[in-house]
Specification:
2 domains, two-stranded antiparallel ribbon, 46% helix, alpha+beta, His-Me finger endonuclease fold, 5 helices
């Protein structure tokens, strides 16, 4: 039987289970965090306020690095060429962090296209390795045929 309520370890209030975030360390299990969403939000706001300079410095460095080989004009050009959608799955919404990603070749530092969050992360998990991606495609085809 599933729990209906949990005790927040921070504010010590018993709240419905929906008021707790899922524990991300193991998304396959239905573990809930020990602090409620309100307490998590408060903790995150305090962290951001205390570390704003460091957070902004990291964002600025990442932006500079991205713009070095994928300028904003090229990003807009590629997105327009793609019809305002992801170059791979054709999604109209970027998903994930809320904006499309500038994809680039990490070895040659050359721009490629504009991707949604899922496709960008997917390529990253395959290390941009064409052989791995082809092997994954064959794997999916094999089980698609077996499961028909």
């Amino acid at each position: 039987m599933a729990l209906q309520e949990l005790l927040c370890t921070k504010c010590k209030v018993v709240k419905p289970v929906g008021q707790f975030h899922k524990e991300l360390r193991n998304p396959l299990r239905d573990y809930k965090r020990t602090q409620c969403k309100d307490c998590d939000l408060e903790k995150n706001r305090k962290y951001i306020a205390a570390n704003r300079e460091m957070i902004n410095r990291k964002r600025t460095a990442k932006d500079r690095e991205t713009k070095r080989f994928f300028p904003a004009e090229l990003f807009e050009q590629r997105l327009t060429e793609q019809g305002g959608v992801c170059a791979i799955c054709k999604a109209k919404e970027a998903g994930g962090r809320g904006q499309f990603h500038a994809d680039h070749d990490h070895q040659k530092e050359k721009p490629r296209g504009v991707l949604c969050h899922s496709c960008n992360v997917g390529l990253g998990h395959f290390f941009d390795n064409i052989e791995l991606i082809e092997a994954a495609l064959e794997y999916l085809k094999k089980y698609e045929k077996e499961n028909k």
